[in-house]
Amino acid sequence: MNTTKILGEAVGIQRQDIIDRTEEQTADGLTGAVILGRFKRGRMDVPMSIHLGNIRGQLGYDPKNPDYIAVQDCLDTGVPSVQVLRLKEAEDDACVGATKKITLGSINEGGYYDVVINKIHSYRIIGFRDGREDLKSIFALYGIEVKPLNSTFEEVISNGGYYNEVEYASFFHPANNHVDVKIATVDANSIDEYIVDPVYGRNETVVFETDLYDGVKFCLN
Prior knowledge:
Blueprint: E1 34-37, E2 48-50, H1 55-59, H2 66-76, E3 82-86, E4 101-105, E5 112-117, E6 120-126, H3 135-140, E7 145-149, E8 168-172, E9 179-187, E10 193-195, E11 207-209, E12 215-220
Parallel strand pairs: 1-3
Antiparallel strand pairs: 2-3, 4-8, 4-10, 5-6, 5-9, 7-8, 9-12, 11-12
Protein backbone atom coordinates (compact mmCIF):
# COMPACT_ATOMS: atom_id res chain seq x y z
CA MET A 1 0.00 0.00 0.00
CA ASN A 2 1.31 3.41 -0.94
CA THR A 3 1.25 6.20 1.66
CA THR A 4 1.63 9.97 1.29
CA LYS A 5 1.77 12.93 3.58
CA ILE A 6 -0.01 15.12 1.00
CA LEU A 7 -3.58 14.01 0.58
CA GLY A 8 -4.75 16.80 -1.70
CA GLU A 9 -7.38 15.23 -3.91
CA ALA A 10 -6.09 11.70 -3.48
CA VAL A 11 -8.68 9.02 -3.00
CA GLY A 12 -9.08 8.03 0.63
CA ILE A 13 -10.28 9.28 3.96
CA GLN A 14 -9.25 12.86 4.61
CA ARG A 15 -9.37 14.73 7.89
CA GLN A 16 -11.18 18.09 7.92
CA ASP A 17 -10.65 20.11 11.08
CA ILE A 18 -13.28 22.57 12.32
CA ILE A 19 -12.35 26.05 11.13
CA ASP A 20 -13.20 28.98 13.43
CA ARG A 21 -14.65 31.77 11.32
CA THR A 22 -16.32 33.74 14.13
CA GLU A 23 -14.08 36.77 13.66
CA GLU A 24 -14.19 36.87 9.89
CA GLN A 25 -16.16 39.70 8.25
CA THR A 26 -18.95 38.60 5.99
CA ALA A 27 -20.65 40.42 3.14
CA ASP A 28 -24.14 39.46 4.20
CA GLY A 29 -24.74 42.82 5.92
CA LEU A 30 -25.65 43.74 9.46
CA THR A 31 -27.86 41.31 11.34
CA GLY A 32 -29.56 42.62 14.47
CA ALA A 33 -27.28 45.65 14.85
CA VAL A 34 -28.64 49.11 15.62
CA ILE A 35 -26.81 52.35 14.89
CA LEU A 36 -27.32 54.95 17.62
CA GLY A 37 -26.90 58.62 16.84
CA ARG A 38 -28.22 62.16 16.91
CA PHE A 39 -30.17 63.26 13.85
CA LYS A 40 -32.38 66.17 12.80
CA ARG A 41 -35.52 64.07 12.91
CA GLY A 42 -36.73 60.54 13.52
CA ARG A 43 -38.19 58.35 16.25
CA MET A 44 -36.56 57.97 19.65
CA ASP A 45 -38.74 55.17 21.03
CA VAL A 46 -38.09 52.39 18.50
CA PRO A 47 -35.40 51.74 15.84
CA MET A 48 -36.15 52.85 12.29
CA SER A 49 -35.37 50.84 9.17
CA ILE A 50 -33.26 53.18 7.03
CA HIS A 51 -32.33 52.57 3.40
CA LEU A 52 -31.05 54.73 0.55
CA GLY A 53 -34.58 55.63 -0.46
CA ASN A 54 -35.67 57.12 2.87
CA ILE A 55 -32.53 58.25 4.70
CA ARG A 56 -33.04 61.95 3.95
CA GLY A 57 -36.74 61.91 4.71
CA GLN A 58 -36.47 59.89 7.93
CA LEU A 59 -33.29 61.35 9.44
CA GLY A 60 -33.09 64.77 7.77
CA TYR A 61 -30.28 65.53 5.33
CA ASP A 62 -27.25 66.42 7.42
CA PRO A 63 -23.98 65.78 5.51
CA LYS A 64 -21.80 67.37 8.23
CA ASN A 65 -23.17 65.17 11.01
CA PRO A 66 -20.80 62.24 11.80
CA ASP A 67 -23.75 60.03 12.80
CA TYR A 68 -25.54 60.70 9.53
CA ILE A 69 -22.31 60.04 7.61
CA ALA A 70 -21.89 56.70 9.41
CA VAL A 71 -25.35 55.56 8.30
CA GLN A 72 -24.77 56.78 4.75
CA ASP A 73 -21.38 55.04 4.54
CA CYS A 74 -22.92 51.79 5.76
CA LEU A 75 -25.62 51.92 3.09
CA ASP A 76 -23.07 52.81 0.41
CA THR A 77 -21.29 49.49 1.04
CA GLY A 78 -24.31 47.67 -0.35
CA VAL A 79 -26.18 46.87 2.85
CA PRO A 80 -29.88 47.05 1.88
CA SER A 81 -31.00 48.67 5.15
CA VAL A 82 -29.85 49.40 8.68
CA GLN A 83 -31.68 49.86 11.97
CA VAL A 84 -31.20 53.36 13.39
CA LEU A 85 -32.27 54.71 16.79
CA ARG A 86 -32.24 58.45 17.31
CA LEU A 87 -30.76 59.62 20.61
CA LYS A 88 -32.04 62.54 22.60
CA GLU A 89 -29.98 65.63 21.93
CA ALA A 90 -27.76 66.95 24.67
CA GLU A 91 -28.76 70.28 26.14
CA ASP A 92 -25.76 71.97 24.57
CA ASP A 93 -26.70 70.66 21.12
CA ALA A 94 -30.44 71.24 21.29
CA CYS A 95 -30.35 74.67 19.62
CA VAL A 96 -27.68 74.04 17.00
CA GLY A 97 -28.95 75.47 13.72
CA ALA A 98 -31.24 78.06 15.34
CA THR A 99 -31.82 81.50 13.85
CA LYS A 100 -33.11 84.77 15.24
CA LYS A 101 -36.38 84.80 13.33
CA ILE A 102 -38.97 82.36 12.00
CA THR A 103 -42.49 82.59 10.56
CA LEU A 104 -45.15 79.96 11.26
CA GLY A 105 -48.69 79.20 10.07
CA SER A 106 -51.48 78.63 10.63
CA ILE A 107 -51.80 80.99 13.58
CA ASN A 108 -55.28 82.21 14.55
CA GLU A 109 -55.99 85.51 16.26
CA GLY A 110 -58.74 83.87 18.35
CA GLY A 111 -57.21 80.42 18.75
CA TYR A 112 -55.87 79.09 22.04
CA TYR A 113 -52.39 77.65 22.60
CA ASP A 114 -50.29 76.08 25.32
CA VAL A 115 -46.82 77.62 25.27
CA VAL A 116 -43.59 76.36 26.84
CA ILE A 117 -40.62 78.75 26.81
CA ASN A 118 -37.41 77.58 28.46
CA LYS A 119 -39.44 74.86 30.25
CA ILE A 120 -41.89 77.38 31.74
CA HIS A 121 -45.53 76.59 30.85
CA SER A 122 -48.28 79.06 29.97
CA TYR A 123 -51.72 77.52 29.37
CA ARG A 124 -54.59 78.53 27.07
CA ILE A 125 -52.95 81.63 25.64
CA ILE A 126 -55.08 83.39 23.04
CA GLY A 127 -53.50 84.13 19.67
CA PHE A 128 -53.71 87.93 19.41
CA ARG A 129 -55.93 90.17 21.51
CA ASP A 130 -55.11 93.52 23.14
CA GLY A 131 -55.59 93.57 26.89
CA ARG A 132 -55.31 89.77 27.18
CA GLU A 133 -52.48 87.34 27.78
CA ASP A 134 -51.76 86.62 24.14
CA LEU A 135 -48.76 85.35 22.18
CA LYS A 136 -47.31 88.86 21.96
CA SER A 137 -47.33 89.47 25.71
CA ILE A 138 -46.10 85.98 26.71
CA PHE A 139 -43.16 85.96 24.31
CA ALA A 140 -42.28 89.58 25.18
CA LEU A 141 -41.37 88.36 28.68
CA TYR A 142 -38.42 86.55 27.05
CA GLY A 143 -37.42 89.38 24.72
CA ILE A 144 -39.12 87.82 21.69
CA GLU A 145 -41.15 90.04 19.37
CA VAL A 146 -44.21 88.32 17.88
CA LYS A 147 -46.15 89.88 14.99
CA PRO A 148 -49.45 88.70 13.51
CA LEU A 149 -49.33 88.44 9.70
CA ASN A 150 -51.97 88.05 7.00
CA SER A 151 -51.85 85.75 3.97
CA THR A 152 -49.44 88.09 2.16
CA PHE A 153 -47.14 88.25 5.21
CA GLU A 154 -48.03 91.85 6.00
CA GLU A 155 -48.39 92.79 9.66
CA VAL A 156 -51.98 92.86 10.89
CA ILE A 157 -52.79 96.01 12.88
CA SER A 158 -55.12 95.98 15.85
CA ASN A 159 -58.68 97.11 15.20
CA GLY A 160 -60.22 98.04 18.53
CA GLY A 161 -58.08 95.38 20.27
CA TYR A 162 -58.85 92.68 17.70
CA TYR A 163 -56.62 91.38 14.92
CA ASN A 164 -58.57 90.26 11.87
CA GLU A 165 -57.50 87.81 9.16
CA VAL A 166 -54.35 86.56 10.90
CA GLU A 167 -52.85 83.48 9.21
CA TYR A 168 -49.16 83.59 10.19
CA ALA A 169 -46.97 84.87 12.99
CA SER A 170 -43.32 85.88 13.00
CA PHE A 171 -41.08 85.29 16.03
CA PHE A 172 -37.98 87.48 16.33
CA HIS A 173 -35.36 87.21 19.09
CA PRO A 174 -32.75 90.01 18.91
CA ALA A 175 -30.70 88.87 21.94
CA ASN A 176 -27.74 86.48 21.71
CA ASN A 177 -28.98 83.76 24.06
CA HIS A 178 -30.82 80.54 23.16
CA VAL A 179 -34.55 80.30 23.78
CA ASP A 180 -36.30 76.93 23.57
CA VAL A 181 -39.96 77.08 22.52
CA LYS A 182 -42.90 74.68 22.21
CA ILE A 183 -46.35 75.73 21.02
CA ALA A 184 -49.26 73.27 21.20
CA THR A 185 -52.67 73.99 19.70
CA VAL A 186 -55.56 73.72 22.14
CA ASP A 187 -58.48 75.19 20.21
CA ALA A 188 -56.99 76.38 16.93
CA ASN A 189 -55.95 75.25 13.49
CA SER A 190 -52.84 73.08 13.27
CA ILE A 191 -49.50 74.84 13.11
CA ASP A 192 -48.03 73.00 10.15
CA GLU A 193 -46.20 75.52 7.98
CA TYR A 194 -42.74 77.06 8.36
CA ILE A 195 -41.58 79.91 6.12
CA VAL A 196 -37.81 80.28 5.71
CA ASP A 197 -36.82 83.85 6.53
CA PRO A 198 -35.14 85.59 3.57
CA VAL A 199 -32.76 87.47 5.88
CA TYR A 200 -31.87 84.96 8.60
CA GLY A 201 -32.12 81.76 6.55
CA ARG A 202 -33.38 78.32 7.50
CA ASN A 203 -33.90 77.45 11.14
CA GLU A 204 -32.84 73.80 11.48
CA THR A 205 -34.52 73.36 14.88
CA VAL A 206 -38.12 73.67 13.67
CA VAL A 207 -39.96 70.37 14.24
CA PHE A 208 -43.69 69.77 13.81
CA GLU A 209 -45.01 67.17 16.24
CA THR A 210 -48.27 65.23 16.15
CA ASP A 211 -47.43 62.22 18.35
CA LEU A 212 -47.49 63.89 21.75
CA TYR A 213 -49.31 67.10 20.83
CA ASP A 214 -50.40 68.96 17.74
CA GLY A 215 -47.89 71.75 17.53
CA VAL A 216 -44.33 72.82 16.87
CA LYS A 217 -41.06 73.25 18.71
CA PHE A 218 -38.08 75.40 17.78
CA CYS A 219 -35.14 77.41 19.11
CA LEU A 220 -34.26 81.05 18.61
CA ASN A 221 -30.85 82.55 19.30
